[in-house]
Write a structure and sequence with these properties.
Elements lengths: L3 E6 L4 H17 L9 E5 L2 E6 L2 H17 L7 E3 L3 E3 L2 E8 L5 H14 L5 E5 L2 E6 L2 H13 L7 E3 L3
Antiparallel strand pairs: 1-8, 1-9, 2-3, 3-6, 4-6, 5-6, 7-8
Helix pairs in contact: 1-2
Length: 162
């Protein structure tokens, strides 16, 4: 019998990111505490730009965006927001959306699987994803539960379960 396998990836559903940004923009436009603060949010490529005329207001926009991310099922680990920066008369926050697993992170996950997982489970790095294979499907489910329990600094999903 052939080995069963799955891939560990770190992907972002861009349509959901756009939906979260659009909901945040609508909330900024309608909320009373955002009146006359010049609050704005937009996405360009893999960056989200937020700006307002006060440091506290731009942080509040970021908080609203984080709430929308959570409600839409997106991981906050995929978003890396910077500190508010003063630019002219307004404050700006730039947030990057991270996708893919770096080589170092993939090696860390493979080490966790080797050290703490069941014997006979193989993990190999393939580009920006990690393929985990084993003869037993139960072992693969054990690996998934193990990794979900770990507090990794990046978001992971399990795909291509065969």
């Amino acid at each position: 019998m052939a080995d069963s396998s799955f891939d560990i990836v770190s992907k972002v559903e861009w349509q959901e990111v756009d939906n979260a940004i659009n909901q945040t923009a609508r909330e900024i436009a309608t909320r009373f505490d955002f009146k006359n603060v010049g609050g704005e949010i937009k996405r360009s490529g893999e960056k989200i730009e937020m700006k307002a005329n006060g440091e506290e207001r731009v942080k509040a926009i970021l908080d609203v965006l984080k709430d929308k991310f959570i409600k839409r099922g997106l991981s906050l680990k995929a978003m890396e927001a910077g500190e508010p920066l003063l630019s002219g008369k307004e404050y700006k926050i730039s947030a990057d959306i991270k996708e893919g697993i770096t080589q170092d992170d993939a090696k860390k996950v493979a080490k966790i699987i080797r050290d703490e997982g069941p014997k006979g489970v193989k993990a190999q790095v393939q580009g920006d994803e990690l393929r985990v294979s084993s003869k037993s499907r139960d072992d693969l489910q054990t690996i998934q539960a193990l990794l979900k329990g770990k507090d990794l600094e990046f978001a992971i999903q399990f795909v291509n379960y065969r």
